[in-house]
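Pilot study result, target chain (392 residues):
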Amino acid sequence: MLKTKTSSRQTLGRFPCAQCGAVLKYAPGTTHLICDYCGFENHIEYRAGVIEEYDLQEALRRLSEPRTEAAAKPQVHCNECGASFQFESNIHAGECPFCGSPIVTATTQSKPIQPKSLLPFRINESEARQRFRRWIDGLWFAPNAVKKYARSESKLTGVYLPYWTFDSDTETDYVGERGDVYYVEEQVQVTRNNEVVTETRRVPKIHWTPISGHVNRFFDDVLIGASKSMPRKILDALQPWDLEQLIPYDENYLSGFRSEFYQVDLNEGFDHAKQVMDNVIYRDIAYDIGGDHQRIHQVRTRHSATTYKHCLLPVWSAAFRYRNKSYRFVINGRTGEVQGERPYSWWKIGFAVLTALLLAAGAYYYLESTGALKHSQSGTYYSAPYYHSDHY
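Predicted structure:
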């Protein structure tokens, strides 16, 4: 899984059509490479193999060892047109900028950890664009220019993004407090119909009890995006992924698509994974403490049997500019889930707020003119329930 040497020579994957010799591209949702020229289909042979989990601590130890200096970014040579060029530093699959031929380079030259599994694209560009249009048309308060973009024929880009998954067995000791609600009666003076009267109210109080305990949980496939080309909140929102359908890495599925190297290193990825796990562990602790409210003061978590996988997951991406700012969108290449950044039309928001205020004023005037408002104010007053939580 780990490589310690690099080479300045790029190994290219070629996918010739068995009928006319042209370069083939993977057809989403199938196990075929399709020729754009003659329509011939080349079947992708199934690669048997178990999707392995790798020991995290062993990998981190080997990554910390001194390694041969990486060579300068190698030249890519296109066998179709003869051009030589370089991909961006985070890309290892894409198109030749001169003739558009799909190029897939080996990952071993640039990163010590290579992807061992992937999920192929399931939805094609046409279906992805339809999902994108429905999503963007449904955005409230979006400028009209954004709606117009949704109806355009702008090309979507298919990209395989790098991800880490982590498994870990956790044991957690904690110290906190359990809060139980009880009520007391208090005499208060209030004004009713222009008169000061005394009323009895039930007021909630909380009794706190010190508590300590232990929880454990096994985490399976905590997914962390390893790309920095997209905001993490967008990548996280694309979940869930059908990771149980991962297949062994096969460069045939990359033909015709872009593919990125990981930009989030393994140790950084695990740091993000621990944050995800900690949120779940805190909820487990709160449940274990019980009561009506919880305070968590100290937490000590131990991880064991921690493993990882490095995989590629498919997305369709698009971007547009609005008022000198770029907005990015991504579509899950398996489920069609759409997430992205969006601008707001402030005049639409202002109009909606003004309309809401006018409706509220109209309702108030109606209640006051019918006497319903005065009647409701003469009823018994109850205080709102008290809520407190320190564990988030």
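One observation from the pilot: The CA atoms of residues 90 and 261 lie 5 Å apart. A full batch analysis is planned for the follow-on phase.
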